[in-house]
């Protein structure tokens, strides 16, 4: 009798092995091994993106140009933005005197910095913190000897939380400063710019 039971158990086990895993087993397995959500590639999120998610970057205009357009796109998985910058020809200007600002904000802190000495923004440097999910910034401030800035204004916020940014500097104006606030719920930052006209 015992040998008969052993034979039955062996037969059942053999049948299971020959049948292989069930479809339900495979479905459960696929659910367990599904890849975590990910951000799209930088250039998919923002055409022409010059930076990467969570990565440091430095962008600089040539000596006869200044920042004229700032674009960015946000991803909630990385809790970061990718960026694209454009430079515009500055008539009558050759920015031979340049200065990199110190870091103009702490992680999660407010940001407000204006380039000194009649200079305007010709570059940006930034690093990202995964623990704070925020960026710190430095500005490249540039000038031509003898030039002056005037007729300065401060923009409203140029982006909403988690939303794309596409800011074009108006003709005859230059970015002179940057301002921003961080939100720990959205893990994002909103930005404003100080704009000025220039007399070479």
Automatic annotation (TrEMBL):
Instruction: Work out whether the entry's keyword set contains Protease.
Output: no
Keywords attached to this Swiss-Prot or TrEMBL record, sorted alphabetically, are: Disulfide bond, Secreted, Signal
Chief subcellular location equals: secreted
Subcellular location as annotated? Secreted
Q: Which InterPro entries match?
A: Dermatopontin (IPR026645)
Spell out the Pfam families in the cross-references.
Answer: DERM
Question: Signal sequence: where?
Answer: 1-24
The Gene Ontology biological process terms listed for this entry are: collagen fibril organization
- Which protein family is named in the record? Belongs to the dermatopontin family.
Q: Which PANTHER family did the record assign?
A: DERMATOPONTIN-LIKE ISOFORM X1 (PTHR15040:SF1), DERMATOPONTIN-RELATED (PTHR15040)
The protein's name: Hemagglutinin/amebocyte aggregation factor-like
State the gene name recorded for this protein: LOC109486970
């Amino acid at each position: 009798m015992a040998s008969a039971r052993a034979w039955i158990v062996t037969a059942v086990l053999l049948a299971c092995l020959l049948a292989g895993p069930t479809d339900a087993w495979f479905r459960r397995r696929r659910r367990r091994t599904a890849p975590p959500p990910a951000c799209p590639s930088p250039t998919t999120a923002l055409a022409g993106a010059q930076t990467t998610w969570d990565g440091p970057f430095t962008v600089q205009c040539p000596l006869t140009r200044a920042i004229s357009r700032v674009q960015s796109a946000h991803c909630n998985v990385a809790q970061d933005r990718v960026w694209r910058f454009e430079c515009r020809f500055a008539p009558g200007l050759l920015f031979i005197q340049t200065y990199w600002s110190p870091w103009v904000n702490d992680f999660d802190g407010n940001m407000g910095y204006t380039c000194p000495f009649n200079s305007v923004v010709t570059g940006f440097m930034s690093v990202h913190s995964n623990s704070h999910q925020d960026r710190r910034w430095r500005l490249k401030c540039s000038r031509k000897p003898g030039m002056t800035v005037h007729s300065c204004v401060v923009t409203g916020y140029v982006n909403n939380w988690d939303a794309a940014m596409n800011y074009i500097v108006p003709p005859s104006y230059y970015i002179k400063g940057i301002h921003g606030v961080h939100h720990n719920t959205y893990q994002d930052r909103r930005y404003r710019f100080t704009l000025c006209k220039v007399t070479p």
